[in-house]
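Researcher: I've got a protein sequence and the SMILES for zinc ion. Could you write out the 3D structure of the bound complex as structure tokens? I'd like something to compare against our soaking experiments later this week.
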Amino acid sequence: MDSDKEKENLDVKNTIPENPFSSGEIRTDYRTGLKVVSELSRKNRPSDYLIKEVIDDKGKENCPFEPEKYDLNKTLFEIGNPWRVRVIYNKYPIFQYNAPYAHEKWDIFERSTNYGFSFVIIDSRKHNLKFEQFNDANIRDLAKAILETEKIIYEHQRIDFVYLNKNFGRKSGGTLSHSHWQTLGYTDMPEMVKARLSKVREFKDRYGSCLMEYAAKKEEERKLLENDTLIAFAPFAQLYTGESVVIPKRHVNMLSELSENEMIKLLKACQKIIIANNGYFKVHSYNILGYSLKEEKEFHSYVEIVPRVSDIGPMQMADYYGNNVMPEEYSKEIRAILNNL
Ligand SMILES: [Zn+2]
Ligand SMILES: [Zn+2]
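Model: Sure. Here is the predicted complex with zinc ion in place.
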């Protein structure tokens, strides 16, 4: 019996390749604790991603963000007269600023009202101008609008998480092609955000320092760009193919703590990475995601850029994330493109 077992084990041993990671690997993301599987079997030439990206643009005439359709939307504030950037109340809000706040729990059940904030930043009057084409003046206006919108939301009580996000393209979940951003104010942090916070806290308790600042130093191999105010890199465990993180060098727990100049630099870094991603993947859908946690001083605010190379599948729906270009290869290619911009 015993010798049979040994033989069995030996056979197993023989099947392990010399480099056990050569066919792919499972990494654990330090930001969230989520598992990330790299599937390299569908070998990864950018041409694989050449997707006919039809952005379903119904045209200027049907666009609710056009200056002529001013009365369709309720304004929070504007920059410029006539406006160059306009922040509006979302007409189809996830959260309602005028809903009462209530939360209750009984037995195994829990519910709350949808009190919160849903603002849309229309960052250009021009229907077809893409964020990555914005000039310095456009970026300055946008930086001001992002900072101001978050500050306005955080003037209200019970908001503990502000989620800045941009959808561009059909695959990003975006429904309108006219450039815009969303700023959402949550009364309850989503579980994924709680995971991000708990990873930061765990690290702080253990080592007494900031996880994201430590990561920024350790991610040298996967660094994309750096200047005096920020650093951008592909994280060790990219949750999605081509995902990158842009992190301010200064420890802030909310993006609205950044100066206008710091926000401008952050947006410009996002533009560059999007241009490079578009060059590499030939895909033009993307998301930009920003995390601001007002009461959590330990949290280090950052922004993520996700080119929407592939659809969300059943693995991700079970919190098992994935990519099919190794982050090391991705960052090498992106650095090469950035150096030629
Ligand atoms: Zn439009
Ligand atoms: Zn920090």
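Model: The radius of gyration is 22 Å. Residues 108 and 162 are 28 Å apart (CA to CA).
Researcher: Great, I'll pass this along to the crystallography team.
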